[in-house]
Amino acid sequence: MIAKQFNATRATANPGTQLLMCCYGLSVYLETPREKRTGRLPAILVSFLIFFFYSVTTALDTVYMHDTFQRAIDGPQSILSAHADVGVNWTRFLSPMCVVMFMALGDAVLLYRCTILWSEKRWVCTPLYLLQLACVALGIRSVIPGDVHSEDSNRLESARTFISVSVNVLATTYLATRLYQQDRQRRLLFQDHKDDTYRKIARMLIESAVPPAVFGVVYAAFTMIPLDLTSQRVHATLALKLTFSFLFFSCTLAPQVIIFRVNTGRTYLRRDEGPTGVSTDLVFAHSRPIEHSVLVEGSWGQEGGRTSSIEKDYEVDSDQKAVGMETTRTL
């Protein structure tokens, strides 16, 4: 019931924001030449899928709460009985399944990035895969009909939130560690190397992971607190649960923001015959030193082992500008 109340309040906010980012990212993708679109189409599709599942669960929960409050004619104390009167129907199953889907998609984006960056040691990502499977299993279990206000239901929701936060934090740690390792190796190889692309990518990932981690832990903690409608503190407890529920689930915008920045920041175009496209170069399409051409030719792989999955897709034009194509695949 708490989650559904939250979904009803966000009905006109987050889906609209996501739709704006999805459509703008698609417009940038369509204006990009075909040879520059490599790896961007999956990101566009994931972005629209997250928006679709998010919007469906919001719409269904809004209708559900409308029907419930129509029956709650005797004030807050009658909400639970009104919830029972609404009964279990197909929306009771579809709405939480959509929640499971869009949260799983956001975590899957993180897992995909880890798989790409740790391609030489994929066994390192095994804990992430197991945690993700556990999170999906708990999400499916929550769809099974039961008393949504029971103590077991609260524990289930709390456990799923903790696991989701763990996947987010652990995956971001893996990604940031790998990126800083690559940056350190490049700085050792080129003493005068001043490009900080990897560090900026790592900071962007960390920034997107901190809010859901903090709000998720607090929300999971409040979920474990049983809601006693006869208590004098019921209104304060309910307000805190709703607040952190709103903040945590609003953080599903994090993967959308990353995909949005990837789609708009990596498609900076400068054609000789016309003006630039609508996209701009955030950080990854600026001028780079001449040694980047050495990375592209493969000397990095000769001196430091296998060619890094990040460097191997960099393309250098006549002005020695590198456009990071790998970031599109990894982010």
Automatic annotation (TrEMBL):
Keywords: Membrane, Transmembrane, Transmembrane helix. The chain crosses the membrane at residues 41-60, 93-112, 124-144, 159-180, 201-222, 242-262. It comes from the Eukaryota. The keyword Membrane applies. This is Uncharacterized protein. The lineage of its organism: Eukaryota, Fungi, Dikarya, Basidiomycota, Agaricomycotina.
